Amino acid sequence: MKKNNNFVTVRAWISRVTMLALVAGAIAACGDQSSNNPDVVVVSPSPSPVAVSPSPSPVAVSPSPSPSPASTTVVVVPTTSPSPASTTVVVVPTTSPSPASTTGATASPSPSPAATTVVITEPITDVVVITTAPDPQSLANRRVQFTEVKVQSVIGDRPFWVGRSNNEQLAVVLDPALDKGSAENKVVVKSGQTLNLTGVLKPMPPADLAQKQWGLSATEAQQLQSQAVYLQADKITFKKS
Question: Where are the alpha helices (DSSP H) in the chain?
Fold first, then answer.
């Protein structure tokens, strides 16, 4: 009985030793594995911080000084010529900008006052200029100064025809001042006379009005309608034969 107890005791110690040996071997194996296969830690590099440019501070724009009245602005406009570097320079007169003007909008220059064009025309001196004009009405209010023009025919107290021939003639009507008072007895126009005439071209009135104003028959008044204008003569000189 005593021998059995010793056997159990020895066996228990052997089991304990075996367990310790196994534990020690496991620990040693773990140590070897740790040294042979260390954990690999992949460290992703942190993205380098992006440099943030500071916001540009607003630039204070001082108003441009008022240019002198004679100053000009030069605008360079590219042209469509083959040379890419060619430019056209357009000089635009400017006006003095207001001191309170702000940037961001282009101020248009104030329009210059419209220039007044005065056209001085010489008086018409040839009947053919009037009779062959494409638009005789455009000659209305033009001054006329005929020298040695021939009377073709007389059709009333005041109206008559002058020109080179029946195909190149102009209707003339004496100004009322030449047909009254002492002038009435002096101004007697006859066919074939040679005259110097001065006056203004006027639009031809309708036949009924011409008949009434100038004391014509209906036929005579209708004949005048072939012309768009007539000469209202304010000066007449008879050439002595």
Answer: 2-36, 127-131, 182-186, 207-214, 218-223
CA proximity to 189, closest of 230, 148, 152? 152
**Two tokens at 57?**
């501070």
Residue 197 and residue 148: Cα distance in Å, rounded? 8
Task: Give the Cα separation of 145 and 231 in Å (integer).
Answer: 10
**Hey, how many other C-beta atoms are within 10 angstroms of the C-beta on 168?**
15
**Residue of 162, 157, 160, 146 whose CA lies nearest to 215:** 157
What was the pLDDT predicted at 43? 40
Token representation of residue 162: 């002058």
Q: Residues 239, 148: contact at Cβ < 8 Å?
A: yes
Mean pLDDT per 10-residue section of the chain, whose length is 241 residues: 59 72 66 47 45 50 50 38 40 47 49 57 92 93 95 93 91 91 86 95 96 93 94 91 62
DSSP notation for 103-147: TTSPPPPPPPPPPPP----PPB--HHHHHT-S-GGGGTT-EEEEE
Q: Are strands 229-238 and 168-174 parallel, antiparallel or unpaired?
A: parallel
Q: What integer pLDDT is reported at residue 239 of this predicted model?
A: 83
**How many helices (DSSP H) and strands (DSSP E) are in the chain?**
5, 7
What's the burial of 41, exposed, middle or buried (CB within 10 Å: 0-12/13-18/19+)?
exposed
